[in-house]
Amino acid sequence: MRFAAGQLEMPGGELEVGETDVSEQQQLTGDLDFAATNKANKKKLAMYAQASPGCTIYVILKMAKPLLRLLCGFIWLSSEQFDICQDTAAARNDPRSYRVAEAAQQTYLSKFRQQVDHLMQTEHMFLPSGGCTVAMRALMFRLLSRCSCAVHQYLTVSHRNCPYRVFKALTGQAPEVEDTPVCLQDELTKAILADFPTYNELQSEECQQILSSIAHSFQLDILNIEAAHASTRRLITLRSVQTWALSMEQLNAEWVLRSLVSLREPFMPSGLVSVNNQMMKKRKRQEAVAGQPGPKMPKIRNDGKQKVGHGGTWRAFVHRNLKGIKFNQVGQTIKRMRLRYQMLKASRDTEWSLLEHLGLLGTLAGQQGAMPFPALPKGPTQQMPNPDILQDDSGSGAVVPLETTGDVVQAELRELKQESRVQRLLGETEREQMAADVVEASKMHHDLLSAQQGQSSGLVGALGSGAYRCLPGHFGQPDVAYFAAPADLLVKDSYRGYRILDSLTAVQEMFRKTVSDRKKYGYGMWTALMTEWQSLNRLVRHSEHEPIQTGETSKSMCLEQGTCICNSSVWHYHCKFIALMCKPHFLPKREPRNQSKERAEGPETVPGPAGSSAPLTGSAPSQPKLKKKAVKTPHRILAEQGFLVLRVSACKGRITRHADNSWVQLAARSAGLAGHSAELPAITDGQVTGVEQEEEQLQQSLWYHLGFMNFRTWQCTVTPLNYSYSDEEGVHLLAQDPLGCCLHLDFVKQNQDLKAAWVAQYYTLQSTATHLAPVDMLPAHVTVRSYKGLPPLKVWLGEEAEARMRRQQRARGGQRRQGVSQASRDAATGHSGRSRGSASGRAGAAVSNATDRVFEDGPSALQLPSGDENSGSDKDHDVENRLIAEDPAPMDETAVGLEPDDVPDIEGGQASSSSAGPVEPRGPTDPSGPIAAAASAGARGRGGGVGGGERSGTEVVYDLGPGLGSVRYYPVSSTMQAYCPHHGSDCRKTRTVKPGRPEHQGRPLGFLLSWLKDCANHETKQQHVHEHRKYTHVVRAEAREEFMQREGASAFAEYERARRDDEGPEPLSFS
What is the mean pLDDT of residues 392-415? Predict the structure, then answer.
């Protein structure tokens, strides 16, 4: 197999590529079928070869280099070698750095951004001609944009904020720390700024020392922990294959021994080998050149004698005294040197200690493969000493002949003996003086403590009887006087008149090496110390280890989002944008609870006598529930692969009510007045407006690539794009230089004026096989076309309209509760009436209405977070509830109660949610039909019902009276809802009026009315909604008959499914 010009060719001709079976694609376990495995591998290889992966592999390797270098940089920051280098710099009195300071300055992140910008703005002309396509250029852009956005969201945003930001004071950037907004400060930053609020105080020595102490132990990640675990995991894996399991004791011993071995080994090999290895390599080279075996190396006799290492005191002595002299030139000098070496060994003075240390260092260096002692530097003017003479060691510099060398040695020996005698006399004098001082000190203690009685008297007596002892000094260390407990006081019996001192008994018990309880010795200090040491050096299982106390601190909403969102409508816009443009399209469609339960728990069947199957009755063994695999929508797959580009356009002038109504647009398009029917910008590719008007609107729009999104927290990072031109291929966009990746919140703050209304539309990157010239392979240039799968939508109505809607919603006195944690707290305390819901429920309530109408009793699909188990953290579900607690003003609401010309309708295909797909818009209804009759009798035209439920403007509400609730019919989703007034605004039941497989489906009026009457038997909304009760036919028929006696009830009941011929007014069974 070989690569040629980006093509991957197969020897022996082409192979037919067939479809691979599913069983062959799955990982084989158990008994292997090698024939099937080889067949599957051949098919995969043929498919891989014909896919021409050369260009793709080149692009991936090229685009991944910045990320790999960033990863290596952070690994270096977390390594132990970084600490060694910085400690070495501090020891040399040079400025040192810290991990957290490097992260705050974004040293490696700046290099990463520069490398990404260079790749984005460079034409990749080295690609083979077969790889110069639009698809390959889009692939390069997607790789760079998504990589840059992910790094920005997870690293840049966190490193530019607290607590990293406060450590900029260590690098002279104290003004940035001083100017940190309060909403972006964590608890550490608040504590530092509370004690050092000004610039001068931040630069003070005390503040710098505090920050340095914290920064010295600040870890950016858990790489050091995982590196320590890697050796243990590797050892367990190796010792667990085809052998017995490794016990914790054996693993502990193996880990300790391996740690000791690794300490003796150098981190990097020095490249120096032993002399024997050098000789062996030299002999092998000679044999290879001559072509014949060279002289054999002499065998090393293994006589069991101890082999001396590379160092030692004798080698150190020779290196110091005979350096540069060859042994064959020394002659009789070596004998005299040996005599002097023996004299030094007998004296044990400081020179001998120096030789011992040098010998030990030489031994360690030889074991590591290095030279034991440094070689003598050779130079052209270096003069070797005369081997026939020796220098006089007395310091006179005279040359001593060899004949008188013995006399010199004897004289030196006599001087050494005399010096030793003098030093011994001086040492005895010092010890006598110290003993006299001890006696004086004991007398003073005796005078001071003479008045004390009891146990102190025995101790004072011990002080005067030689309790202090003198420890002679050694190697220049001073003598030390220490206290020793007298032995007679420890062994005297009580009947002889001596009491054992409790204090001395405690000292004895403290260092006793026993744990025997029978002898009543107890646990002494020795045992406690050894037990603590063993616990620190013993590997324990994770389940046996006591849980580590978490040190998490509370964060403000701004700090969690990574940017300041105070006193602005940016957060409201972001929530509404996510609720209308992301969640309905990126979350899978939910199934009704009863249908999903029936599908999951289908009736089990057993084969009959003739091969038929019958339902299995009776108890059966419980089967483990299989976790349902997460299903991703096609829109989410496009977002994860980086194909989605968003265009947001500001609406000019006044927004009319029917601006985005499908019927009005169709009529205007037929009349040729599409450009005047609505004052919204055209958001299609030239199908409605003229070329000049479309070009102007494309230039005024804002474009950005949806680079990265966390589908649990709904935080997203975007790459801004600039409009270039448009043609028949699509709209051509250019990435900015530098790339400028930012959070969606930051993009809105910097570029969008929220006083105006905004429309958003999805575009997709073009990924075709159209060939391009090598000079056109610029990743920053992308081509997009409008995405027909997702309709455009007005996501923002302007600050004034949005604020007015929020005020009117608060004035109505209630919000729907859709946050699970908030609802559960209200249920636990028995609250009713007004309750504040989650921010996502208030954002885009029209979409959430459609969701709640279709799926009974289920949580809203727009609730933040989404519940995606594959992304995000477990603590993200409190974000919205905390936002509500911090901001008493509700979020975005539907246009209920406003004038028709103020707010456009969002319905049908433009309000498609995760629970119901786009619905075809319906035409105008007959005002003389049942809707008008029901509305004249008991239906409300505007506003919520008694239960406080919102309306979308098309539902029919029938009010049952004060305290009785209401029932509603939604023509868009063909559902009926019953609202209970006793448990808050979100207590409701939903049933469809469409015919279905169950015979009773479609006639829910009796069931809903019975459910409303049953409200007194439930204390909370959760019990009333989720406690499933089957009402009897008599109860439902009675409730229906009572309802039909009301005025206008017959017209309202016509919304139900029509009765069958053999069916009564109320179905026999309903649930």
Answer: 53
Q: Tell me which amino acid residue 602 is.
A: G
Q: What span, in angstroms and rounded, lies between the C-alpha atoms of 889 and 366?
A: 76
Q: Which domain holds residue 234?
A: 223-241+248-260
Q: At what angle do helices 65-78 and 223-239 cross, to 10 degrees?
A: 90
847-867, pLDDT tens digit by residue? Answer: 333 333 322 333 233 333 333
- pLDDT band, very low/low/confident/very high, at 227 (cuts 50, 70, 90): confident
Residue 1019 lies in a domain: yes
Same-domain status, 931 and 908 = no
Angstrom distance (rounded) from CA 901 to CA 995: 37
Q: How many CA atoms lie within 13 A of 1034 on its CB side?
A: 0
pLDDT tens per residue across span 267-302: 444 444 445 566 666 777 777 766 665 555 555 555
| CA–CA gap between residue 959 and residue 947 (Å, rounded) | 10
**How many Å apart are CA 704 and CA 763, to the nearest integer?**
10
Any idea which of 399-413, 746-760, 795-809, 936-950 has the lowest mean pLDDT?
936-950
- CA-CA distance, 422 to 434, in Å (whole number)? 19
Reduced to 3 states (helix: H, G, I; strand: E, B; else coil), residue 727 is strand
Q: In this structure, are 814 and 934 located in the same domain?
A: no
CB 840 within 8 A of CB 580: no
Is pLDDT above 80 for 979? Answer: yes
* Pairwise CA distance, residues 844 & 90, whole Å: 58
Same domain, 895 and 933: no
pLDDT of res. 155: 92
Q: What is the pLDDT of residue 423?
A: 77
Mean pLDDT is highest, among 170-174, 477-481, 688-692, 889-893, for 170-174
Bridge partners, residue 702, by sequence: 648
Residues 471 and 478: their CA atoms lie apart, in Å, by 9
Residues linked to residue 967 through DSSP beta bridges, in sequence order = 958, 978
Asked whether residue 9 falls in the same domain as residue 65, the answer is yes
Which of 422-426, 435-439, 607-611, 769-773 tops mean pLDDT?
769-773
Of 917, 943, 977, which residue is a domain's last? 917
Report the alpha-carbon distance of residue 433 to residue 606 in Å, rounded: 105
The one-letter code for the residue type at 419 is E
Backbone angles phi, psi at 214, to 5 degrees: -70, -40
DSSP-based three-state secondary structure for 87: helix
One domain for residues 145 and 169: yes
Structural domain count of the chain: 5
Distance CA(989)–CA(1008), nearest Å, equals: 7
Short-list 431, 389, 396, 394, CA closest to 416: 394
* 971 plus 909 within the same structural domain: no
Are 566 and 556 in contact by the 8 Å Cβ rule? The answer is no
User: What pLDDT shows up at residue 612?
Assistant: 43
Q: Which residue has the tokens 């808050």?
A: 984
- Cα separation of 653 and 656, whole Å? 9
CA distance 805 to 446: 91
- Smallest CA-to-CA distance from 177 within 152, 158, 196, 154 is with 196
Please report whether residue 1064 resides in a domain.
yes
Using the structure block, give the residue that is written with the tokens 């930012």.
742
What sections of 838-984 are H helices per DSSP?
A: 839-842, 845-854, 879-886, 930-937
Q: Is residue 377 part of a domain?
A: no
How far is Cα 222 from Cα 182, in angstroms, rounded to an integer? 29
Same domain, 27 and 130: yes
Residue 814 and residue 755 in one domain: no
Per-residue pLDDT band for 340 (boundaries 50, 70, 90) equals confident
Task: Enter the pTM of the model.
Answer: 0.52
Angle between helices 820-829 and 879-886 (to 10 degrees): 70
Residue 234 lies inside a defined structural domain of this protein: yes
Q: State the first-to-last Cα distance of the chain, in angstroms, to the nearest integer.
A: 66
